[in-house]
Write a structure and sequence with these properties.
alpha/beta; Rossmann fold; Arc Repressor Mutant, subunit A; 5-stranded parallel beta sheet; 3-stranded antiparallel beta sheet; 56% helix; globular
Length: 221
Amino acid sequence: MDEVELLVVDDDAKMVEGLTEILEGEGYRVEAFEEPMAAISAAKKRRFPIALVDLIMPGLTGLEFLRELRKTRSDTKVIIITGFGSIESAVEVMKAGAADYISKPFKINEIQNVIKRTLEEIRFESEIPRMVKSSGSGRVIKAISNPIRRGVILLLSSRAEMRFTDIKNTLDVDDPTKLSFHLRELRGSGLLRQDQDKRYMLTASGGKIARLLLELEKDTY
């Protein structure tokens, strides 16, 4: 795989230094900024596949950064860095188009996992044109570009119905708020439904998408 260059934006110099050390230790190239608008300027000159951006910064919030970046680099995946107690705000930014979020203080493996998931999302989206031709719905395919949402679809294709806690434990999702967000996205796209006992199950459309995902996995391997 080609070396991936990441954009890091945080007004805390120690956080920038720590993230840079971690990410470079994982083999990524890092361009780091403490000033959000300087990072926007850099992103206009060249593409970064992923940007890790602090939620609360003076001059420009993470949400404002996301919106500004979208004007020139709509294909850059933004991962929000949020402090304790700001999870609801991070979810709001995800609704606005962020790929994911990580909460401070975080562990090294959490950073590794969220970046790997986001890179997988980028790879999956490259397959979307072919899948759209098969499914006829670009909006639905886009909804499952996230690896967690794909995991839910594939899991329910083999289990028929499951409760929230069982899905969380089986997929090993540490953050229940994040899983709730993804389940709502799947329900909103018409791929998932809940019965009166709060059990999740695939709709007919969800079953069709599950079959497409299984076909894609066969092609990959």
